[in-house]
Each structure stands twice: as C-alpha cells, then as structure tokens.
Amino acid sequence: MVDESNAGPVAPAVVADAEVKAPTGKKRSSSRPQKAPPEPAQPKMPAAKRRGYSEQERSEKLRLIETKVSEGNTLKDAIKSAGISEQTYYHWKGAAKSAAREDIERTRPLSAGDEFAELVQLEEENQRLRKQLAEKLRTENTELRKRLGLD
Asked: Which family does it belong to?
C-alpha cells in the first residue's frame, strides 16, 4: 500500500514580502524547576555549659594531678581522673607558673640604689599630699568663716 499523497515532487513554497528575522540575543532556556524550600532546621542540642572553676578549685585539681603522677600514674590518666581536659590543665599550669613568678618578683629584696630611688619618690609624694591637704583645709576654713560671718 502506497500513500499517494506523498508520491510527487515537493514544490518550494514562496512567500512574498516575508522578512527573515535573524536571532537576536540569548535564547531563553526552559524555565528551571524551583528549588525545594529548605527543610526546617532540626533543633540543636544545647552545647555543654562552660564550668567556671575558682582559684582554689584550680589549685586543688593541679595538686591532685601532681600527686597522682608522683604515685606512678601517667599524666594523661591523672588529668582525666581530675575531670578536666589536657588543654585546660596546661592553661591552668601556665597561669599558676606566671602568678608564682610575679609573686617572687614582688618579694625580691631591692638593691641599695633601688631603695634610695624609692625613698626619694616617697618623699616627693609625701610633699605633694601635704600641699594638697593644706590647700583643702584653707578653702574649708574660708568657707566656715563666711558662714559664721567672721570675715
């Protein structure tokens, strides 16, 4: 069975006064599918609250760790048994060391030259304070005289 409608040669179609438009600009692609709305965030577990230790608690834990290490435990095990992290241990140890160094510097005896310089400084401060007190007493005295009508 032959289809007779397609059997002959095809004549070109001529369209008069038709303008051929050249493509201009970018071709638009088909619209993209919309993004799915973000899933609601799962409620996060609250982070563990930081525990603040007092100076006394810190020094007790450091002493506890030192005694456990001297008994033969490893440093890591001693720190774990104290309930703090290694980082916290080293931070506390450094702070305690610097505080001890400051105490030593404060209690160090002064040399003769330092003692003399400190004495001169104290005498200057004493003179300044005496002048300040005298001026304050003078102004207070004049105000009292005015109130009493003695001036």
From this structure: Belongs to the SyrB family.
* pLDDT at residue 41 greater than cutoff 60: yes
Amino acid making up residue 98: S
CA proximity to 51, closest of 93, 82, 76, 77: 82
User: By 3-state DSSP, what share of the chain in percent is helix, strand and coil, each rounded to 5?
Assistant: 55, 0, 45
Q: d(Cα 144, Cα 150) in Å, to the nearest integer?
A: 9
Q: Is the pTM of this model over 0.85?
A: no
Q: Name the DSSP class of 84.
A: -
65 with 80: CB under 8 angstroms? no
CA 15/CA 110 separation, integer angstroms: 114
Amino acid sitting at position 121: Q
Alpha carbon distance 5, 125 (integer Å)? 123
**Interatomic CA distance for residues 134 and 151, integer angstroms:** 20
